[in-house]
Amino acid sequence: MVEAVLIDLFSLPDNLQNNIQGLVHNALETIEKCSSIHAPSVYVMCCQRQGSERKGEQEFLFPDLRGFQSLKRRLEVVCAQTTAAALYTIKQKLDEKDLSIIKVILPTLRKGLMKVYIDHLFTAVYQFEFEELQVVSDCENLQVSEPQHEGQRLPSQDVALIQSEIQMYLESLPSLKGELTILRSSLIPDDIFLHGFTTRTGGISYIPTLSSCNLFSSCKRRDPQVVVKENLRRLANAAGFNPEAFHRVKIDHANAVCIMGKTEPDNYDGIVTNQKGVTLAAPGADCIPVLFADPVRRACGAAHSGWKGTLLGVSMATVNAMVSEYGCNMKDILVVLGPSVGPCCYKLPHESAKEFHRIDPKCVRLFDSANPYIDIRRATRILLERGGILPENIQDDSITDQNQNITFCTACHPDKFYSHFRDGTNFGTQIGFISIKA
């Protein structure tokens, strides 16, 4: 069932510009008459010429809406100077109402272009179907119409122009929820390494559970890759690293480690390098983003450590990679655990809790319950110390001076951090990042 209808009048051919009202009238008449495309929301997208601040666009396009009483309250006109701006505004309206199934009525020649915009601004959460904008108003005449050369790709230069338009628009948007904030550890020497842990402020993601500096996109979430890329660009500017030399682990919730410069595994939760200017990153939205630094050998690493990765020893696997690849001494390696879900909030089924109890009984609270509380940070520290990392070279929530603490509980601080545990499936993601200064 279609949940919203989008009528694209943004770039009509010159011979139809004078007939906008007639075209819209016919499209609306068809929507109202045909139950197959009945939708709770109807959006009309049109171009606002530069220097024009036309008031009452809805009244201009529809001087007489008396014939469309069922549509009047669910009809909105969105005018903007670019297709990117108009479509992104409509996306915000769709997301406010949690709508995902959209019918797009548009001139045939716009379909190829519109698909590129949609591919960049939306994710697989949304479903789109297309129909040709017809002058005739009979229901049977508003049929799905395939544009000429269907299946033929848009020229690469046209795609590049669309990408540039989208990027310029996103760069123009204001930051949400305050300034971009980066947490840094006093353990990692800042004369050698650039590092930090992000919070949720200072980006452009507007969906409540993703707002605002979400740094991960997936087919199951509503934040597209272009928005995440813009958030990353703003982070890179604030932190001082090159976003084009940025490498994020490919999460598998296991213990594989990628060695920069060697064949990249399909999936890995740890990554290491000794190359200057290359930024490594590990995401976290309850799972621990762990950073590693050896100031003697000048090598670094990052790991994503959830409960499965913790049990599989991903942190020590990252340490061992630094030792074997770069000749690091175990006693020189510094390890910092970033914001992650704390033992105050995190529960696992009893069977999984048993594995943490075997590491150390102090890693589990209320062990005899069906869902005991788990301390994945303590488990990570214990496994690192057993592997040879010096206790004083590990920073986590056990730090004495709480003013220096950066290992906050993500679930306890909704104003600062994202949390899968707290927010559900459409959650945002922060990261820990590190690089060797040039």
Instruction: Flag low-confidence runs.
Output: 135-150
- How much helix is in the residues? 25-40%
Number of DSSP-assigned strands: 18
Domain count: 2
CATH structural fold name of the largest domain: CNF1/YfiH-like putative cysteine hydrolases
As a whole number of angstroms, the C-alpha radius of gyration is 26 Å
- What does the main sheet amount to? 6 strands, mixed
Spatial shape:
elongated
User: Which architecture name of the largest domain does CATH use?
Assistant: 4-Layer Sandwich
Name given to the CATH homologous superfamily of the largest domain: CNF1/YfiH-like putative cysteine hydrolases
| Secondary structure category | alpha/beta
How many angstroms separate the termini? 55 Å
Q: Provide the residue-averaged pLDDT.
A: 89
GO molecular function, one term: hydrolase activity
Keywords: Acetylation, Cytoplasm, Endoplasmic reticulum, Hydrolase, Immunity, Inflammatory response, Innate immunity, Metal-binding, Nucleus, Peroxisome, Phosphoprotein, Transferase, Zinc
GO biological process, one term: regulation of defense response
Organism: Notiomystis cincta
Structure description:
This protein is of the alpha/beta class and 438 residues long. It has two domains: 4-135 and 162-171, 3-Layer(aba) Sandwich (Rossmann fold); 175-436, 4-Layer Sandwich (CNF1/YfiH-like putative cysteine hydrolases). It contains twelve helices and 18 strands. The strands form four sheets. A six-stranded mixed beta sheet has the order 9-10-13-12-14-17. A five-stranded parallel beta sheet has the order 3-2-1-4-5, with helices on one face. Helix 5 (111-121) packs across helix 6 (156-172). It is elongated and about 75 Å long. The protein starts with a strand and ends with a strand. One of its GO terms (biological process) is regulation of defense response.
